[in-house]
Amino acid sequence: MQLKNQVINSSGTYEPFFIKDGVRYHHILDPSAGAPAQCGVESVTIISKNGEALDKGAFLMGVKDELAYIDSLDNVEAYFIIDIQEFSN
Fold first, then answer.
1. Quick check: 78 and 52 in contact, CB under 8 A?
2. Residue burial 9-36, b: 16+ Cβ < 10 Å; e: rest
3. Is 47 exposed, middle or buried (0-12, 13-18, 19+ CB in 10 A)?
4. Which residues fall within 8 angstroms of residue 77, CB to CB, at 6 or more apart?
5. pTM for the full predicted model
6. Per-residue pLDDT tens for 3-60?
7. Which residues contact 87 (CB under 8 A, 6 or more apart)?
């Protein structure tokens, strides 16, 4: 894939993180909870022309709401890596 006049933004829970008492804490915080966002998203990559920082929104909005929002935008692509256990229920 070649990009021209586009920006790639990625965020993920894989770095940085720490484990305390068997619980994994990552750096993407949900401001309403004051704790790491827990929505089943492990990583998201956004490709866009305007450089919107939509990658963090996926962790706060959740996959379904974020996809609906991205679908409403022109020239924006999103790639998600999700925790399948979170979505299998």
1. no
2. eebbbeeeeeeeeeeeebebeeeeeeeb
3. middle
4. 46, 47, 48, 70
5. 0.77
6. 888 989 888 888 888 989 988 888 888 888 888 888 888 888 999 987 667 888 777 8
7. 40, 63
